[in-house]
């Protein structure tokens, strides 16, 4: 069981943007370089984050992105629910299961998934970006060459 | 986020074997036919289930497999922990993340995963194989041609 790469990238973007001491905006190219991931994979992720209002994008020469909400008001549960979507933990239809029309396993898994998300509602973006993570994120921002600012 | 196909297949095998009114043993070929999945994929799954003692295999002409424990004593939490293994929900090393050495996200996800499994410890194999699932499983067994028994 693993989160999708899409969710993984969205968490990295939000965590990177949680850094509070940045005067200028962050570019997608910068995040791509920092995490060594393809820029085009990030574009799709950032577009959804903008649609959700969690990230604000500004166009133009000195444009870029920043958090659209306080990091303390966004929970990891909210983020994962949105990014993972509503797909069930087991795909009863892909490799069609003969039990799919009356399977109690589905209910048990849905219950457990709800507890999973509820637990993550107890953690905000600010929580997971506090020390020691905060120090690592700050270090990344300090290493950005001024030219890409 | 999805369970691995390996876990999916192991659940199908255990659910199928939960049927109490079967006089003869079940063969892997029979399960492969019933769920329309490749026999060789099931062999690996059944081997692990036998190692865990949850399934008992008998060799020989009228050999086959059956549950090795009462369905009421095996929880879905136990099954998923074993079959999913200890892999984290996010792969920090595969596409190496610069935050991996001090990331609080990891702790939050581990906490949530524990709650997920704890919830599933509240469901036994017998629970998820009760009605209406029981009826579907019984129907499958009744459809087995006597020749493959």
Descriptive keywords:
homodimer; 149 residues; mainly alpha; Arc Repressor Mutant, subunit A; two-stranded antiparallel ribbon; 7 helices; 50% helix
Helix content bin of chain A: 40-55%
Q: Within the largest sheet of chain A, what's the order of strands?
A: 1-2
Task: Profile the largest sheet of chain A.
Answer: 2 strands, antiparallel
Percent of residues in β-strands of chain A: 5-15%
What shape does the CA trace of chain A take?
elongated
Order of helices and strands of chain A: HHHEEHHHH
CATH topology of chain A: Arc Repressor Mutant, subunit A
Computed structural class of chain A: mainly alpha
Description:
Two copies of one chain form a homodimer. The first copy, chain A, has 149 residues and is mainly alpha-helical. Chain A has one domain (5-148): Winged helix-like DNA-binding domain superfamily/Winged helix DNA-binding domain (Arc Repressor Mutant, subunit A), CATH 1.10.10. Chain A has seven helices and two strands; from the N terminus they run H-H-H-E-E-H-H-H-H. Chain A has a two-stranded antiparallel sheet with strand order 1-2. In chain A, helix 1 (5-17) packs across helix 3, helix 2 (28-35) packs across helix 3 and helix 4 packs across helix 5 (104-120). The longest helix of chain A is centred in the C-terminal third of the chain and has 17 residues, at 104-120. The mean pLDDT of chain A is 92. Chains A and B meet through helix 1, helix 4, helix 5 and helix 7 of A and helix 1, helix 4, helix 5 and helix 7 of B.
């Amino acid at each position: 069981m693993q989160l999708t790469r899409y969710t993984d990238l969205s968490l990295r973007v939000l965590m990177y943007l949680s850094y509070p001491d940045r005067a200028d905006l962050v570019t997608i190219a910068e995040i791509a370089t920092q995490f060594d991931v393809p820029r085009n994979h990030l574009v799709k992720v950032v577009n959804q984050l903008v649609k959700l209002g969690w990230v604000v994008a500004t166009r133009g020469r000195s444009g870029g992105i920043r958090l659209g909400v306080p990091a303390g008001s966004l929970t990891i549960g909210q983020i994962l629910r949105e990014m993972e979507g509503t797909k069930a933990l087991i795909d009863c239809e892909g490799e069609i299961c003969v039990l799919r029309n009356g399977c109690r396993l589905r209910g048990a898994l849905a219950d457990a998934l709800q507890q999973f998300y509820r637990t993550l509602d107890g953690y905000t973006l600010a929580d997971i970006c506090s020390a020691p993570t905060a120090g690592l994120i700050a270090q990344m921002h300090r290493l950005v060459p001024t030219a890409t600012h």
